[in-house]
From TrEMBL:
Matches recorded under Gene3D superfamilies: Glutaredoxin (3.40.30.10)
InterPro entries cross-referenced by the UniProt entry: Redoxin, Thioredoxin-like_sf, Thioredoxin_CS, Thioredoxin_domain, Thioredoxin_ResA/DsbE_sf
Keyword Hydrolase: no
Protein name: Redoxin
Domain of life: Bacteria
Domain Thioredoxin: 46-178
Annotated GO CC locations: cell envelope
Species whose genome carries this gene: Enterovibrio norvegicus
Record-linked SUPFAM superfamilies: Thioredoxin-like (SSF52833)
Length: 178
């Protein structure tokens, strides 16, 4: 006499398998990377490639900045940001930290007069050299469409551009590969 009762077959639970999680994670990383690359390309397509635009720039402390000359010694981080930019609150501390090791020139875009920008820098304990682009002229010349935007300049040429939130390892990689 045989037992013809159907046996319970337990369904395979994919989510219990570590390989499934790893594959899902890898898929998300690839998708996120492709989207980030596409967004960077779109936001930076109107920005200068090659030679740095020649324009006079003066920091809040009155120092004249020549990006071409400054970038011949080592790569320069040119950081476009704004006091009103929510994403800049995450990126600015990273850029400030890098200013201890690399030349960083920041451009505060449409963030008010010099006194207001200086007060913001002091209240957030930021120490990088800052140019106030009160009317957005520098940002327009550079074709900035989003803040924050980070440009790596070496030997007077634009080497790398990224927009949006970036991490310390991401910024360090851009500097090393420039």
């Amino acid at each position: 006499m045989s037992d013809n009762t159907p046996q319970k077959i337990e369904p395979k639970r994919k989510w219990k398998n570590p390989k499934w999680w790893l594959r899902e994670f890898a898929t998300l990383v690839v998708l996120f990377s492709v989207m980030a690359f596409a967004m960077d390309w779109w936001r930076t397509q109107d920005m200068p490639k090659g030679a740095v635009p020649a324009m006079p720039m003066t920091t809040l402390s009155g120092e004249s900045i020549d990006l071409v000359t400054l970038s011949h010694e080592e790569p320069v981080v040119l950081y476009f940001w704004a006091t009103w930019c929510p994403a800049c609150k995450f990126v600015t501390p990273t850029v400030d930290w890098f200013s201890d090791s690399y030349p960083v020139i920041s451009v505060a875009m449409t963030s008010g007069n010099n006194r207001r920008v200086q007060a913001y820098l002091e209240s957030h304990d930021l120490h990088f050299d800052t140019i106030n682009d009160e009317k957005g002229i520098i940002g327009q010349t550079w074709g900035i469409q989003a803040t924050p935007t980070i440009v790596i300049i070496k030997n007077g040429k634009v080497e790398s551009i990224t927009t949006g939130i970036t991490t310390p390892p991401g910024l360090l990689a851009r500097l090393w590969f420039s």
